[in-house]
Amino acid sequence: MSAGSEKIIMAVPKGRVLGEILEVLRAAGIVPEPAFEDSQSRQLRFTTSVAAIDLIRVRSFDVATFVAFGAAQMGVAGNDVLMEFDYAEIYAPLDLGIGVCHLAVAEPAEMVAGDDPARWSHVRIATKYPNISRRHFAARGVQAECIKLNGAMELAPSLGLCRRIVDLVQTGATLKANGLVEVEKIADVTSRLVVNRAALKTLPREVGGWVQRFQEIVNGAAA
Asked: Is 215 within a domain?
């Protein structure tokens, strides 16, 4: 555990999967204090019904950083985040089966008829996943020029920033609303329980016990 910490800190991401994560936490007996679900609260760290566990609510990409550097001993992160950062310090022992979506390449609908992804040699894309994107395209011999954006990727083609984007797709509604069509799937994405490797070694009973508890919940849901 990090210096001066007396609790296990668990990092969870803000945004679309938080409701699903809360269901899993409650099933494990971890219920956050009321301020956690108060949209007006400016708190970032919260106590829970388990005295030994506090939650921190951060951006999805920051979950991996907090866990990798030991500021949080556990967390929930999408495998998109794990693939982008590829921190050696993070162990992801369990797929929670929530936050289901996928990572894809999309382009304007009017380009699709005359475009063949198999013939690409160079692409310019907007994405918040430059590392994943470069690896994906390099594996098929395509040079990728990545423009890093943290949001509103769908605007990039219509404003001339690039012709294609790489982003998460859940229903495809946002792509459609912005005149874009998915043309290539990169990876399926779900949320994973992640732990700091050093914490798992120094606190095997505490951290390992929670990994086992979450495993039981996932197994029960699948039964």
From this structure: yes
30: left (phi over 0), alpha (psi -120 to 50) or beta: beta
User: In whole angstroms, what is the distance from residue 175 CA to residue 173 CA?
Assistant: 5
Residue 3 domain flag: no
21, 110, 136, 200 from 216: Cα distances, Å: 15, 48, 34, 18
- In the block, tokens 């920033």 appear at 161
CB burial of residue 156 (10 Å; 0-12, 13-18, 19+): buried
Give the range of the structural domain holding residue 181, as residue numbers without chain letter.
Answer: 101-188
Stated as kind and residue range, the H or E segment containing 111 is: helix 109-112
Domain membership of residue 2 (yes or no) is no
pLDDT tens, the chain, 223 aa long: 444 457 999 999 998 899 999 999 999 999 999 999 887 888 999 999 999 999 999 999 999 999 999 999 999 999 999 999 999 999 999 999 999 999 999 999 999 998 998 899 999 999 999 999 999 999 999 999 999 999 999 999 999 999 999 999 999 999 999 999 999 999 999 999 999 999 999 999 999 999 999 999 999 876 5
Q: Beta partners for 107? A: 181
Report residue 173 as tokens: 């509604």
What residues does 95 pair with on adjacent strands?
192
70 in a structural domain: yes
Task: Identify the H or E element spanning 140.
Answer: none
Number of domains in the chain: 2
3-state SS assignment for residue 42: coil
Strands 164-169 and 191-196: unpaired
